[in-house]
Amino acid sequence: MIVKEKGSLKTMFLQIKSRFGDDPKSIYTATVKASTVFEHYSMALVFCFFDTSEGDLWDYLWFVPAPDFIKLANRLEGGKRFGFVAGRGKKDSNKWDEYLIDKKELSNAILKQMQRI
After folding, report:
1. Are 64 and 44 within 8 A, CB to CB?
2. What's phi and psi for 63, nearest 5 deg?
3. Nearest to 85 by CA among 97, 102, 77, 101
4. Most CB atoms within 10 A, among 5, 67, 71, 100?
5. By C-alpha distance, which of 48, 60, 52 is closest to 104?
6. Least confident range of 3-12, 41-50, 87-96, 106-115
7. DSSP state of 97
């Protein structure tokens, strides 16, 4: 998804990864091709869960700026892929917790990130 700030040349590129299921307490896992992620704050990844029993997105999602994602993600297949594994509950041991936001705050997170460009 491409987001452009009105009246500005600033543009943000979002890569959205989603999972479907009926157990919002399960561990969220995703893989991302390394060649599709660029180490620049004009890119971010959004990881979301679609709850099939509710017919809606889970109340929270992860909004991760690309440079942070590259730094924290697991390297898979000799660096050809990145791995994202996160629990859905806040825990001190979950390195992705600081990126977990209410889905209603996504637009604010994008605007805040665009200030870094």
Report:
1. yes
2. -115, 110
3. 97
4. 100
5. 60
6. 87-96
7. G
